[in-house]
């Protein structure tokens, strides 16, 4: 099970504030459990763990294996919840510098013409042996009509149809059961389609084909990931304490003036995960003038930039640090040879994990002393099973905590604002 260390944060909340918040968390936990809260028709992210679809997991795994055998490049084309979950898990578990399998590229997550042009040039550049690269494309959009994704999907698949006779077998669409432009394209072109269940919203969809196909293509065992989430789901049915404590604390901190949550980790691999949590919390809690702004950061890198404002700026922020307990690497500092010219002799032979851990512990101490409540969310080690657990932990936490704010965690009406204004400027009939 996922554990937490909230000693620092607890010292910023009075006993009364905590007791009141905890009582409220107990009530909203029941709303999630009994499906009585606003938007309860969107609790499919629990349903899919209660009734795992093993046949779909197997199909996705074997489809991904076929792609891995043939592909040089696999493009994940989606935005928001249609790509952050896959990216989070892939970045967390794949090597930094060389994939074990096809290169995973992302598209459809913004509207940079420069990026798309350079992506197309890269796809078109032949391999060292002069052969055309073998490209696969996964268009992912629940609504099937998000502009960023639709534009990239149009561009890439048009080129694929020009160069590959079997383009239709290389293009996969992951979308809602019916409706939306992507479904029309699938009907016309005969692409393989995976369905995003109606009762699972975009930011809760990583454990559906949205995240599972790209993650499997990246060579990650999706059964282990999925069943990690299932075990967290089953465990949380018995033991709600950690979730209630975390929800109560974040709520009490929000109420006593904390407006911003710096989501971070000392493991660069987990930065993608902070992006996933950022969307999950931000789109769920930021409504009706409420919510804490979730801001991702990467440590220790960003301690050398925003570390200053965290330590000494306006005292209205909290910090959430994702921690992996077991060392991720045994890489050590070289032994000092002869004179200690670079003055690193005191670290000679010590592991980078140990040094990084001291940076973590030192940061918690310094930030707490500086007036920043710190919460540590702890996984045992960085592997697929633990990440599956972390996914469900955060989904459940989000639902319980956001209900405390008395808003619907599962809609995102505010995102429509920019879309309407943009479409008007672009002259689209809406
Ligand atoms: O999968 P879709 O429908 O393209 O949406 C992508 C993302 O865009 C949003 O709908 C916001 O516009 C997110 O909630 C969602 O994750």
CATH superfamily of the largest domain: Glucose-6-phosphate isomerase like protein, domain 1
Q: pLDDT below 50 for ≥5 consecutive residues: which ranges?
A: none
Radius of gyration: 23 Å
The second-level CATH architecture of the largest domain is 3-Layer(aba) Sandwich
**Through-space gap between termini:** 47 Å
Ligands bound, unique: 6-O-phosphono-beta-D-fructofuranose
Sheet/helix structural class: alpha/beta
Number of domains: 2
Strand order of the largest sheet: 1-10-9-7-8
Summarize the amount of helix as a percent range.
40-55%
Order of helices and strands: EHHHHEHEHEHHEHEHHHEHEHEHEHH
The count of β-strands is 10
**Which descriptor suits the 3D outline?**
globular
Strand content: 5-15%
CATH fold-level topology of the largest domain: Rossmann fold
| Helix count, DSSP H or I runs of 4 or more residues | 17
Protein name: Glucose-6-phosphate isomerase
Organism: Rhodohalobacter sulfatireducens
Subcellular location: Cytoplasm
Pfam family, one: PGI
């Amino acid at each position: 099970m996922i554990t937490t260390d909230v000693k620092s944060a607890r010292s910023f909340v009075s006993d009364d504030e905590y007791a009141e918040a905890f009582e409220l968390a107990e009530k909203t936990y029941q709303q999630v459990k009994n499906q009585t809260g606003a938007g309860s028709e969107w609790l499919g992210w629990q349903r899919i763990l209660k009734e795992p679809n093993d046949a779909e997991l197997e199909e996705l795994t074997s489809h991904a294996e076929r792609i891995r055998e043939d592909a040089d490049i696999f493009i994940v084309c989606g935005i928001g919840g249609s790509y952050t979950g896959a990216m989070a898990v892939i970045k967390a578990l794949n090597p930094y510098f060389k994939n074990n399998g096809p290169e995973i590229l992302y598209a459809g997550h913004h509207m940079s013409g420069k990026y798309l042009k350079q992506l197309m040039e890269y796809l078109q550049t032949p391999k060292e042996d002069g052969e055309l690269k073998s490209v696969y494309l996964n268009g992912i959009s629940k609504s099937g009509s998000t502009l960023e994704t639709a534009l990239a999907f149009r561009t890439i698949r048009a080129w694929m149809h020009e160069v590959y006779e079997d383009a239709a077998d290389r293009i996969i669409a992951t979308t809602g059961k019916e409706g939306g432009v992507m479904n029309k394209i699938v009907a016309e072109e005969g692409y393989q389609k995976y369905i995003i269940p109606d009762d699972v919203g975009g930011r809760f969809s990583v454990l559906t084909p949205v995240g599972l196909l790209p993650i499997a293509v990246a060579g990650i065992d999706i059964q282990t990931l999925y069943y990690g989430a299932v075990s967290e789901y089953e465990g949380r049915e018995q033991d709600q304490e950690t979730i209630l404590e975390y929800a109560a604390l974040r709520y009490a901190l929000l109420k006593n003036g904390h407006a911003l949550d710096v989501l971070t980790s000392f493991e660069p691999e987990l930065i993608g995960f902070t992006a996933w949590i950022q969307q999950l919390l931000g789109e769920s809690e930021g409504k009706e003038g409420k919510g804490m702004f979730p801001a991702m950061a990467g440590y220790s890198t960003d301690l050398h930039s925003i570390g200053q404002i965290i330590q000494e700026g306006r005292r209205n922020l909290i910090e959430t640090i994702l921690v992996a307990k077991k060392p991720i690497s045994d890489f050590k500092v070289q032994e000092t040879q002869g004179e200690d010219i670079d003055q690193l002799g005191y670290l000679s032979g010590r592991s980078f994990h140990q040094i990084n851990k001291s940076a973590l512990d030192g940061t918690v101490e310094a930030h707490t002393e500086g007036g920043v409540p710190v919460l540590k969310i702890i996984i045992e080690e960085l592997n697929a099973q633990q990440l599956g657990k972390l996914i469900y932990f955060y989904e459940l936490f989000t639902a319980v905590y956001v209900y405390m704010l008395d808003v619907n965690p599962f809609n995102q009406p505010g995102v429509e604002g920019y879309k309407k204004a943009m479409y008007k400027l672009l002259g689209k009939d809406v």
